[in-house]
Amino acid sequence: MERFRNRRDAGARLGRALSAYARHDHTIVLGLPRGGVPVAYEVATALDAALDILVVRKLGIPGYEEIGMGAIASGGIQVVDQHVMRQLGISPAQLRTVVEREACELARREEAFRGSRPPLDVEGRAAIVVDDGLATGSTMVAAITALRLRAPASIAVAVPVGAPAVVMAMRTHVDELVCLVMPDDLEAVGDWYDDFTQTTDDEVRALMRARTEVQHGIHPSSDHPYRHPLARRSH
């Protein structure tokens, strides 16, 4: 079963698999920071599409933070599972405390990744949500749920590798799902990459800046620092 050299290689292969979305003004690619952004950058480049990030923070149940009762996401989106709150007796005050804490972290990450640039409008567009893998699916479900409130025309999920059962379940949430490799024995996404070095905040910023420049008609010369933002990490 095929492996990927790194996230750029994975994104380039995903881009080819998503060729039906190429060169349409309404297509927008959304990467989940941090690791999904290098993959999304290559997808957006292959499709000649707009690129943005979608920062998601799970709202964990107090004392059992690994269990989610909702999520907040880029663009001021908040999704809460009222059924879970009622079942577990989570009060509005407890919810506010969790939301405020996670909103601070989301704002910090938004500032770190995009600076003062506002989120791109996804209303009426074909949104492709990209990550570097799909192991449990919890973050992706939160991202999709939040994104749907921003009224895109369609939502597709694109990942290089994913657990078969999770991929099957995720298909019920979206209009299309593209997953290149579905190993039965997936334990860690990084096992399917030769280079799975952690993506840094600086790299996310460089990739976003590079794609933004291209979208505004600026095609970097060979000595431009953002020509290949992750070139130094390629193998």
Please, how many domains?
2
Could you state the oligomeric state of the chains shown? single chain
Strand residues, percent = 15-25%
Number of helical stretches of at least 4 residues: 7
Mean pLDDT: 87
Give a brief outline of the structure.
This protein is an alpha/beta fold and 235 residues long.
Which features characterize this protein?
disordered C terminus; 235 residues; 37% helix; alpha/beta; Rossmann fold; 7 helices; 2 domains; Ybab, Chain: A; five-stranded parallel beta sheet
Describe the protein.
With 235 residues, this protein is an alpha/beta fold. The chain folds into 2 domains: 7-55 and 125-229, Rossmann fold; 57-114, 2-Layer Sandwich (Ybab, Chain: A). Helices cover 37% and strands 20% of the residues. It is built from 7 helices and 8 strands; from the N terminus they run αβαββββααβαβαβα. Strands 2-1-6-7-8 form a 5-stranded parallel beta sheet, sandwiched between helices. Helix 6 links the parallel strand 7 and strand 8. The relative contact order is 0.19.
List the helices and strands and how they pair.
Blueprint: H1 7-17, E1 27-31, H2 36-47, E2 50-53, E3 56-61, E4 64-73, E5 77-80, H3 82-88, H4 92-114, E6 126-130, H5 138-148, E7 154-161, H6 164-170, E8 176-181, H7 201-215
Parallel strand pairs: 1-2, 1-6, 6-7, 7-8
Antiparallel strand pairs: 3-4, 4-5
Helix pairs in contact: 1-2, 2-7
